Amino acid sequence: VSTLRDLAAWGRALGGGALVGPALLRRQMEAARPATNGPEYDAYGLGMGRLAGYWGHTGEALGFQAATFYDPATRAVIAVATNSSQEIN
């Protein structure tokens, strides 16, 4: 269970390198490739996706959807959570 404050802290730690360290963060970004299926990212690799210059991840569980992204250029964090579920086909 996370709050928006938790998601923002995680996004800042992930995107700023504090979570995995600068070398692994650089490797995550360099390994990202165009996404072919799954969530809509511009590129994805090693557990982190890029979308319009922001790096982060989306998720869904138990009636919630969340997205947290970090912009390395401005150090801004976007964290969103909604009460929603995707329709199962």
Question: In words, what does this structure look like?
Answer:
The protein has 89 residues and is α+β, with helices and mostly antiparallel strands. Helix content is 26%, strand content 35%. The chain contains two helices and five strands, in the order ααβββββ. It has helices spanning 4-16, 22-31; strands at 43-45, 48-51, 54-61, 64-71, 76-83. The chain has a five-stranded antiparallel beta sheet, covered by helices on one side. Strand 2 (48-51) and strand 3 form a beta hairpin. It starts with a helix and ends in a 6-residue tail after the last strand. 21% of the residues are buried. The model has no long low-confidence stretch (mean pLDDT 88).
Structural class: alpha+beta
Largest sheet: 5 strands, antiparallel
Strand order of the largest sheet: 1-2-3-4-5
Cα(first) to Cα(last) distance is: 26 Å
Low-confidence stretches: none
Total DSSP E strands = 5
What is the global morphology? globular
Q: Tell me the radius of gyration.
A: 13 Å
SSE pattern? HHEEEEE
Helix content: 25-40%
Average predicted local confidence, pLDDT: 88
This entry's quaternary arrangement is: single chain
Number of helical stretches of at least 4 residues? 2
Q: Which percent band covers the strand fraction?
A: 25-35%
